[in-house]
Design the sequence.
């Protein structure tokens, strides 16, 4: 039975219990679902050719054996089988393959198989996510068949393109613009059409990457301020109720001496955001739409694994999407220092409030990935919530793992991709360090600290502008998502700081160690800058000045 | 009854009927109370109207105002009903409008300005009531419209975004609309005198009733009690009386010319008859419509309960349960899972013998978790919506879908989930309804209790029949089964194999009783697996087992026993930290009717065969034959100390075997050659036995000789040779501790003496050497020569006999050599298999062991 039919058949309480009942599971109940589903997955995965390529003839029978026998894996372990889409080696027959970017350059993309069981669970969990996003309190969700969803998500074969299909399978809410038409449109056209239709029909849900939602929302505001013709066109096709609302909103804005915002025109039931850096946009989005965004955790490899509730106190994991393990921060540091070190993991019921963890996933229902390091870092913000009335852990998304720089959910810049860009640009760069930083208004960017080769300074043009443009060109060449970042969001995510020749060598002399290329600690960057400053001034006092 | 009074009566009957029904029923929801308040107001309205139209005492006006109270307070009643219906709290409007309408009713009662009492017009024996409304009525209508608008607003608020609530509310809202329309229409001249308002009230009540039914707030069968049937027939009878008694009586008196008294009696009789017929018709109508099925199911439950209480077999109870269920609800499939000792639920019974029986429900399965907190039957589609269902495996979902499971019933007894029943879809493709679930629940509860008790009984019975350690039949039950099977196989064949573990006492002593128990369990498992489905295995004493093999002849029993013996010999010989010795079996088999005609005889003969194996070196299988019987008879005449000390001798020889495998086999061979020579010489049986035992023990003293000397491949030094020679004295010293075997000491002590006096240890010569010692000497030398040694190849039998002849009068007694050679040459003595390679002779010439 579709969710839509259930809306007519069952009471709200019954539907809440069905979809969101997991929130009231005890820790033991949650873990027993986790462990039981893992046993099924173990059986499938360990007997598959893919699993055996990692297990090398071993067959774990218990959860503990599984955790000790299966090493932590990365996409490299699966690439030979998955990129060739060899279905015969998989634990279960996939229904479709979902794609996402990997590293760019030599690793342009990665694919993940989705089985029927995974899709069914995905569907159930996104509906639960929608219910939670529209709820104001426990059991009080607000979903109607006549609702409209404006969505700012990439189409298939990206995972985000699955969401409209999954929703459509359950409920006939209207997507703005319709999914089939949207697939043929550019990003800008889609947004324009979406808002045009929204003016006519209304918008109840808005779903997308946090950064994109913000961009789209700003675009709406700008559009209202900008071309009067375009606005007139839109109003001509708007419903009388919308025209009335627009007129009243205009009056109110004039009175309050502020710009017209989306919240003046639309009364959203929910604003759902996914991806990285959502926390940079949440407050602004709330200001624009008058509703606090709800965050969900979803990805290409793991499907939809968690959602915030009405309390917005953190994300709760779904018990039936993946088996969750967590690498504690200390173990992660040890592993960063020595990549051959196998970090210890803790289970979902072993996390401690305040702890930061890299997540390790085993996808249930015939998924391909086992003990897979998807590369995301979470913090456990608490166990149990009075507002939510439960006793289970809730999490906050922190960022990607330090060796990946993800800007606004668009890019996956690794050390490898930066090296490639430098190599292709033929710029005489001696050494570099990249760090993800945030502007004053909390927007993410990649800060590249660069030291040029001393010998080429006399005969090469190496200004910051040239470096920024040259490297930008090759980042765009290597990573289409980087290009989208500029094209869609209109932001340049790269900032260059030129360091004096010999700064890195000076750092090494001073601290007896090399600085990490990717995302070193802020204090290490400060130390590097001290080296840069100290040597140039040549006196001690500059240190104090710096601070 | 005049005018449209019958309409009022019918509506009143209807309201009273429902009101009384709900009054006596269990009320577990506040919406039922709210509905009863509405009914009460409708009764006031209709009752007042009926009493007024019937011109009841005290006055038309009184009943008019009663009716007015009812109708005016009806809307505030809805303010209580609607929130209860959608599960919300009462709003302020309920109290506000109650006050307003109560005020209107009171003002109306004293002034009559809103709804004035009707004018009673009598013409031609007919009475009619005409209402003359003034404009004040529109004040009431305005208030009513406001109240309805408010009611619609709160209804909209409750149902907004909740389609299901809106859908459920629809009949109630329609009812209100009809009620309003009826009242409005009744003020029109067109419908003057016709009680449209009352009809609309009835329609409204029916719609509310329907809404409550759809919301499953009560079951239809609630209305179908015997009392209700009486009530309806009585009320209908009353209507008939009021309408037809007078005309009938007039007809009888005036037209038929009947006397008044007679007419009264006849009318009364007709009335009784009509009422009785009405009752029967209504009852059979209700039965046919609703409760026949329920009654049938009740009868089935009672019958099943009765039957089950008499049964002590789980299988039979489950069969009865299946029959009872299938009789009432025809379904595609029924699978019953019962909890096993491991905690998982295994299929114990299916409605169809063709159903797959291999899958199980694990103890941690979500359905088991669900039934820990829910004890009722659950539809599969409902279970799929539970949070615990998230833990169900995809393969399990596919299996359930392929089996078409639609309903699951728990078998719960004393708060423990004893079993689970999976039910397939109904054959008529309809869905399971509440009545089915109730029926299944009742049956499941009874079945769980009965099956649980039967299971406990079966378990206790089984335990009393089983050996605790091995799980095989115990001795007591073995006799029962033997008798039973023997009786069954009267016209066929049956074998009995008795199995004894060889040297098990020694095994226990060497490795401890725990290892011994483990070995017994493993042997038990082998026997159980071997006889599964074709016979019975029992443990009849500490180390003895029996196999009852119905339909087996001697040969097939032997094949099975050989297979078992091989498996036992091949059992893993390591306990993780050290190697264990292998176990061998002595098996005696007897088959009926070939060699036994009673169970007792069968047992005795198998026992004889087994002991025969024991006495002839163990580790063998012997079928009971006439020869065994004769041998056993002879043996019975001589009971040597050996019999008493056989286990000790075997323990000692096993110790030699562990140290020097050659010596063990050599001792067996020497015992055989010596006994054969003694028998050939015509010595008495006890002498034969003595020399055999001496042969087994003659080298026992080698236990005390260092292994490097025993196993040395090169020639011994003088010192080593001296040590080696010491084994004779060692043997004598050891045997001395077995007082009842001391008669073998002379033979053992003298087996290295030479006939010419050059032997050791006492250098005896000729006839001074005991006869048995001289026999042993020849047997020992012959086996040493014909066996392979580490320092020499075996010599041929002919050459060995030649050497014996050459050494006659020197090393050996010439008379005995002659007899021995003859016996070998004529085949009376069979040359035994060669021994190991590490024999170290204590004799420099190398022809003695």
Sequence:
């Amino acid at each position: 039975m579709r969710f839509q039919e259930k809306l007519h058949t069952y009471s709200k309480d019954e539907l809440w219990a069905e979809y969101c009942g997991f929130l009231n599971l005890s820790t033991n109940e949650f873990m027993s679902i986790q462990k039981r589903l893992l046993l099924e997955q173990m059986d499938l995965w360990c007997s598959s050719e893919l699993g055996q390529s990692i297990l090398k003839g071993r067959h774990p029978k218990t959860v503990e054996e599984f955790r000790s026998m299966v090493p932590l894996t990365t996409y490299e372990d699966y690439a030979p089988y998955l990129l060739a889409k060899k279905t015969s080696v998989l634990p279960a027959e996939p229904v479709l393959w979902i794609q996402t970017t990997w590293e760019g350059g030599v690793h342009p993309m990665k694919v993940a198989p989705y089985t029927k069981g995974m899709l069914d669970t995905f569907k159930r969990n996104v509906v639960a996510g929608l219910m939670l996003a529209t709820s104001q309190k426990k059991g009080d969700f607000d979903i109607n068949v006549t609702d409209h969803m404006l969505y700012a998500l990439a189409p298939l074969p990206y995972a985000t393109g699955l969401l409209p299909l999954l929703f459509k399978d359950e409920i006939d809410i209207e997507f703005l613009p319709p999914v089939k038409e949207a697939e043929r449109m550019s990003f800008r056209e889609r947004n324009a059409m979406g808002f045009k239709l929204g003016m006519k029909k209304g918008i109840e849900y808005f779903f997308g990457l946090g950064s994109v939602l913000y961009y789209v929302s700003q675009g709406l505001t700008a559009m209202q301020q900008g071309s009067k013709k375009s606005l007139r066109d839109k109003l001509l096709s708007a419903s009388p109720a919308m025209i009335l609302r627009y007129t009243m909103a205009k009056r109110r804005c004039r009175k309050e001496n502020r710009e017209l915002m989306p919240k003046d025109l639309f009364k959203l039931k929910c604003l759902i955001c996914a991806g990285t850096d959502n926390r940079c946009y949440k407050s602004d989005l709330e200001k624009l739409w008058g509703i606090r965004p709800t965050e969900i955790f979803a990805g290409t490899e793991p499907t939809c694994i968690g959602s915030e509730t009405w309390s917005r106190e953190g994300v709760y994991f779904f018990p039936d999407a993946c088996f969750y393990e967590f690498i504690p921060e200390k173990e992660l540091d040890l592993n960063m220092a020595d990549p051959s070190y196998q970090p210890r993991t803790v289970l979902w019921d072993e996390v401690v409030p305040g702890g930061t963890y890299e997540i390790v996933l085993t996808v249930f229902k015939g998924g391909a990935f086992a003990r897979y390091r998807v590369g995301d870092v979470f913090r456990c913000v608490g166990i149990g919530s009075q507002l939510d009335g439960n006793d289970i852990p809730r999490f906050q998304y922190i960022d990607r793992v330090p060796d990946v720089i993800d800007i606004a959910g668009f890019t996956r810049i690794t050390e490898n991709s930066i090296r490639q860009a430098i190599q292709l640009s033929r710029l005489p760069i001696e050494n570099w360090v990249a760090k993800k930083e945030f502007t004053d208004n909390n927007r993410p960017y990649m800060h590249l600290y660069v030291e040029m080769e001393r010998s080429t300074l006399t005969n090469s043009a190496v200004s910051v502008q040239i470096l920024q443009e040259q490297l930008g060109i090759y980042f765009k060449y290597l990573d289409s998502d980087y290009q989208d970042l500029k094209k869609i969001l209109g932001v340049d995510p790269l900032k260059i700081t030129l360091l004096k020749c010999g700064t890195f060598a000076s750092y090494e002399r001073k601290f007896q160690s090399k600085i990490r290329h990717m995302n070193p600690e802020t204090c290490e960057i400060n130390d590097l800058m001290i080296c840069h400053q100290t040597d140039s001034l040549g006196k001690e006092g500059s240190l104090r000045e710096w601070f | 009854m005049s005018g449209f009074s019958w309409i009022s009566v019918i509506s009143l009957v209807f309201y009273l009927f429902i009101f009384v029904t709900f009054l006596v029923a269990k009320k577990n929801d506040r919406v039922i109370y709210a509905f009863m308040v509405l009914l009460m107001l409708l009764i006031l309205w209709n009752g007042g109207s009926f009493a007024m139209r019937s011109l009841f005492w005290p006055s038309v006006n009184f009943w008019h105002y009663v009716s007015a109270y009812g109708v005016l307070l009806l809307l505030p009643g809805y303010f209580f009903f609607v929130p209860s219906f959608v599960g919300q709290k009462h709003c302020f409007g309920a109290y506000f409008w109650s006050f307003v309408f109560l005020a209107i009713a009171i003002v109306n009662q004293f002034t009559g300005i809103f709804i004035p009492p009707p004018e009673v017009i009598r013409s031609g024996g007919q009475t009619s009531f005409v209402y003359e409304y003034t404009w004040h009525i529109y004040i009431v209508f305005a208030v009513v419209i406001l109240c309805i608008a408010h009611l619609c607003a709160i209804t909209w608020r409750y149902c907004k975004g909740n389609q299901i609530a809106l859908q459920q509310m629809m009949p109630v809202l329609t009812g209100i609309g009809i009620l309003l329309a009826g009242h409005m229409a009744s003020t029109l001249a067109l419908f003057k005198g016709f009680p449209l308002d009352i009809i609309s009230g009835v329609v409204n009540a029916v719609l509310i009733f329907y809404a409550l039914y759809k919301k499953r707030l009560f079951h239809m069968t609630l209305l179908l009690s015997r009392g209700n049937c009486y009530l309806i027939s009585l009320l209908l009878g009353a209507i008939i009386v009021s309408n037809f008694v007078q005309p009938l009586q007039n007809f009888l008196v005036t037209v038929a010319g009947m006397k008044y008294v007679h007419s009264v009696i006849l009318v009364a009789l007709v009335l009784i008859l009509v009422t009785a017929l009405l009752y029967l018709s209504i009852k059979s109508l209700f039965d046919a419509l609703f409760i026949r099925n329920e009654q049938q199911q009740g009868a089935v439950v009672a019958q099943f309960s009765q039957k089950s209480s008499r049964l002590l077999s789980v299988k039979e109870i489950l069969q009865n349960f299946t029959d009872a269920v299938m009789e009432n609800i025809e379904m595609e499939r029924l699978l019953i899972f019962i909890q096993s000792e491991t905690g998982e639920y295994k299929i114990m019974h299916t409605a169809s013998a063709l159903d797959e029986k291999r899958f199980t429900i694990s103890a941690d399965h979500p359905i088991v978790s669900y039934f820990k907190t829910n004890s009722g039957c659950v539809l599969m589609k409902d279970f799929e919506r539970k949070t615990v269902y998230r833990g169900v495996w995809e393969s399990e979902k596919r299996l359930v879908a392929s089996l078409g499971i639609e309903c699951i019933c728990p078998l719960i007894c004393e708060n423990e989930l004893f079993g689970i029943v999976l039910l397939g879809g109904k054959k008529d493709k309809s869905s399971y309804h509440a009545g089915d679930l109730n029926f299944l629940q009742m049956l499941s509860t009874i079945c769980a209790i009965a099956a649980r008790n039967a299971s406990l009984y079966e378990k206790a019975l089984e335990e009393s029949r089983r050996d605790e350690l091995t799980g095989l039949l115990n001795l007591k039950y073995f006799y029962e089964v033997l008798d039973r099977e023997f009786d069954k196989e009267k016209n066929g064949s049956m074998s009995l194999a008795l199995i004894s573990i060889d040297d098990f006492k020694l095994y226990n002593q060497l490795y401890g009783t725990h290892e011994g128990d483990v070995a017994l369990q493993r042997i038990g498992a082998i026997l159980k697996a071997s006889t599964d489905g074709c016979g019975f295995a029992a443990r009849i004493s500490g180390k003895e087992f029996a196999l009852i093999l119905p339909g087996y002849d001697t040969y097939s029993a032997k094949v099975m026993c050989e297979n078992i013996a091989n498996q036992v010999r091949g059992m893993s010989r390591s306990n993780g930290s050290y190697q264990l010795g292998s176990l061998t079996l002595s098996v005696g088999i007897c088959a009926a009717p070939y060699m036994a005609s009673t169970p007792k005889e069968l047992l005795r003969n198998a026992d004889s065969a087994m002991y025969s194996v024991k006495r002839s070196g163990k580790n063998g299988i012997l079928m009971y034959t006439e020869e065994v019987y004769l041998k056993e008879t002879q043996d019975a005449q001589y009971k040597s100390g050996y019999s008493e000390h056989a286990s000790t001798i075997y323990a000692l020889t096993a110790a030699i075997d562990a140290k020097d495998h050659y010596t063990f086999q050599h001792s067996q061979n020497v015992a055989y050659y010596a006994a054969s020579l003694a028998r050939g010489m015509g010595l008495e049986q006890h002498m034969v036995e003595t020399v055999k035992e001496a042969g087994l023990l003659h080298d026992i003293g080698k236990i005390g000789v260092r292994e490097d000397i025993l196993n040395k491949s090169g020639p011994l030094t003088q010192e080593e040779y001296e040590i080696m020679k010491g084994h004779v004295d060692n043997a004598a010293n050891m045997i001395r501790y077995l007082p009842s075997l001391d008669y073998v000491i002379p033979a053992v002590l003298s087996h290295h003496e030479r006939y010419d006096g050059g032997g050791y240890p006492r250098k005896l010569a000729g006839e001074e050497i005991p006869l048995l010692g001289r026999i042993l000497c020849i047997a020992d030398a012959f086996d040493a020569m014909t066996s392979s040694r580490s320092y020499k190849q075996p010599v041929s039998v002919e050459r060995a006999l030649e050497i014996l002849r050459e050494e006659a009068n020197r090393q050996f007694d010439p008379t005995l050599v002659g007899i021995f050679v003859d016996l070998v040459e004529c085949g009376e003595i069979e040359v035994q298999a060669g021994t190991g390679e590490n024999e170290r002779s204590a004799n420099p010439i190398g022809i003695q062991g």
